[in-house]
Amino acid sequence: MPYTNQAGALIDAVKAVGEQLIAANPVELAVGNIVRRVLHIIREEDLSLTTAAIGGLNLSAVSDDENDDDRDGDSTLSAAAVAAAARSTLRPPSLQTLLEDTPVSAAVPQTSSSGGDSEGKSKSADKSSRSRKLKHDVIEAVNELIQDIVTCHEQIAEQAVEHIHQNEVILTLGSSRTVLEFLFAAKEKKRSFRVFVAEGAPRYQGHLLAKELVARGLQTTLITDSAVFAMISRVNMVIVGAHAVMANGGVIAPVGMNLVALAAQKHAVPFVVLAGSHKLCPLYPHNPEVLLNELRSPSELLDFGEFSDCMDFGSGSGSPLLHVVNPAFDYVPPKLVSLFITDTGGHNPSYMYRLIADYYSADDLVVQRRATAGN
Questions:
Q1: Within a domain: residue 73?
Q2: What's the total number of domains in the chain?
Q3: If you write DSSP's letter for every residue of 273-297 in order, what string do you get?
Q4: How far is residue 22's CA from residue 36's CA, in Å, rounded to a whole number?
Q5: CATH no. for residue 172?
Q6: The pLDDT value given to residue 372
Q7: Which has the closest alpha carbon to 244: 257, 253, 235, 254?
Q8: Separation between Cα atoms, residue 255 and residue 252, nearest integer Å
Q9: What are phi and psi of 370, to 5 degrees?
Q10: Is position 6 within any domain?
């Protein structure tokens, strides 16, 4: 990386890789979310160092091979602290404030016999120190992000006892590790309740979840998707996972979820969505970058051997009489969602846009490299 505009060069490099990752599987919105989170980290750390330099803070150079024990006493402001302060004030400090806080020694130039040579060496040392500090801070922040993703299931599950009460009936659909850990955590807190699991046709992921719940000692009832309306009147709460949560509070979830949400609204049953912060997407459903759905193979619905004559192109009509549509996802509008539970706590759908704004930069909503001269 060059000494000049090192953060900009790093952002371009991450965007180049991010474009390829997103293009490889555009339906997996979490991939784009992580790329944008990393870009936001780079921008925050660069802003932190710039703010510290303007404020006249004494930045100590951090070498790549320095031990963690030697950095315990480092008093330099971290990007997390700067970001927290920025979020609390909702605006950056003014230029006047920054100038007023500048020490006198920094404002008055010092004269010396060495003149330009010492000044040039000082600037070179400052650039080298800032470069190593940026690298260290970005790596540290990315490692924290990885740790947050790994532990998000446990952090969400810790809140289970606040939402699931004694002798309640919980309904869910399909299979979700987050939902599994959430329900098991409530059982570990001596909550006694029953779980209705809609099977989630045509992939029948609910069968896997029901098996896992029974293996962990939870009372479980497996039902068909079409029986949701018939059973919802006996349910106290619907708890489901999500493929992605959009900026407007809408949810992209496994197919059949909108049916469950409508049934819950009809019978005034709370519809609760569990999602880690890495599934919070800064885009809206109408954005052209968002691919809301994908069509899966018809073989999940029909046996080609039995229905081959219905899908025969050689019948003379030029097109088969039978078409099979097998979407993978549903879109649940925010008006059908009662509560989101993330690794940072519970939130109303109307607050999701503000929560998402803390994780992403407006410049990174579209992951695309800057056009170079000649393109």
A1: no
A2: 1
A3: EE--GGGB-SS-TTSTT-----B--
A4: 11
A5: 3.40.50.10470
A6: 52
A7: 253
A8: 9
A9: -65, 140
A10: no
Structural domain for 256, as ranges: 152-364
For the chain, percent of residues with pLDDT exceeding 90: 58
H-state helical runs in the chain: 6-24, 29-54, 79-89, 95-100, 104-107, 116-157, 177-188, 205-215, 228-231, 257-266, 304-307, 352-357
Q: Which long-range contacts (CB under 8 A, 24 or more apart) does 72-76 make?
A: 76/52, 76/133
Instruction: Name the pairing type of β-strands 244-245 and 251-254.
Output: antiparallel
Residue 250 structure tokens: 């809408």
Please state, rounded to an integer, the average pLDDT across all residues of the chain.
82
Cα separations in angstroms, 181 against 155, 217, 222, 254: 10, 13, 18, 19
Q: Concatenate the DSSP letters of all residues of 245-271 into one string.
A: E-TTS-EEEETTHHHHHHHHHHTT--E
For 100, half-sphere exposure in the C-beta direction (CA atoms, 13 angstrom radius) is 5
Query: Would you state the pLDDT for residue 94?
Result: 46
For residue 355, pLDDT over 80 is answered with yes
Average pLDDT over residues 118-135: 69
The pLDDT of residue 291 is 80
The reply to whether 34 falls in a domain is: no
Structure confidence by residue, pLDDT tens digits, 65-112 = 454 454 444 444 455 555 544 444 444 444 444 444 544 444 444 444
Predicted confidence at residue 371, as pLDDT, reads 57
Total residue count of the chain as it appears in this document: 375
User: Is 342 a domain residue?
Assistant: yes
Q: Is the pLDDT of residue 335 over 70?
A: yes
In this structure, the number of other CB atoms found within 10 A of the CB of residue 54 comes to 15
